[in-house]
Amino acid sequence: MNDAEIAAESIPRSDPIALFDQWYEEARQTEPNDFNAMALATATPDGQPSVRMVLLKGHGPDGFVFYTNAHSRKGSELLANPNAALLFHWKTLRRQIRIEGPLSEVDAETADAYFHSRSRDSQLGAVASDQSARLDSRQEFVERYHEVERRFADSEVKRPAHWTGFRVKPVSIEFWVDRPGRLHERRVFKPDRAGGWNSILLYP
To answer: How many CA atoms lie within 13 A of 39 on its CB side?
Structure first.
């Protein structure tokens, strides 16, 4: 590969939401498992960081949505410090996307709709689990699950009020792509005052 080919930019300077859509659809076709998996980084008000994998369940110009138990560690951190960072890493495509921004809770109707789109087992598990709380034995969790199963045996599973969704509104979206010789390419987009986006390249 010659210098001109190496120097050519491969990440478009266009709308980052449209570019995310394109990469996300390509990941849907190529990733063997959980193409929508993303690392979610949160922090306590005093700056103690924490990271874990969650699943993206909605996205568009208004932000990126995931669901969780607000009583969990991540939920309590999100409520206390409503800022987050997301990372998608698609190994087969040799690409990653980083997203940062403030977040807000989705409305109850949106949370209800997604909760009831899940399998019944997942709904029952969400009710039975005190996510992130101490669990003395697996048997205790199994028994709680069966108790919830009996409680809702003849009715729709009610979404717990603390099981909800959060939407990250991006103030930074960075695209990274593997390039030969470790001369990787990075472009970061940030909103402008006119409602569009500005972007610059970063050294890899």
So the answer is: 12
- Interior/surface letters 119-150, b for 16+ CB within 10 angstroms, e for the rest: eeeebbbbbbbebeeeeeeeeeeeebbeebbe
């970061």: which residue's tokens? 188
Active site residue 182: yes
Question: Are residues 186 and 175 in contact, defined by beta-carbon separation less than 8 angstroms?
Answer: yes
Query: Which of 151, 182, 187, 193 is an active site residue?
Result: 182
Query: Integer distance in angstroms from the first to the last C-alpha of the chain?
Result: 19
Helix 138-151 and helix 120-128, axial crossing angle in degrees, nearest 10:
120
pLDDT tens per residue, range 6-22 = 677 889 888 999 999 99
Domain residue limits, the chain = 3-111+168-202, 117-158
Per-residue model confidence as pLDDT tens digits over 147-175: 999 999 999 999 999 999 999 999 999 99
CA 159 to chain centre: 21
Query: Do strands 58-60 and 49-55 pair parallel, antiparallel, or not at all (unpaired)?
Result: unpaired
- Tell me the β-bridge partners of 145: none
Q: Which CATH architecture has domain 3-111+168-202?
A: Roll (2.30)
How far apart are alpha carbons 89 and 113 in whole angstroms? 28
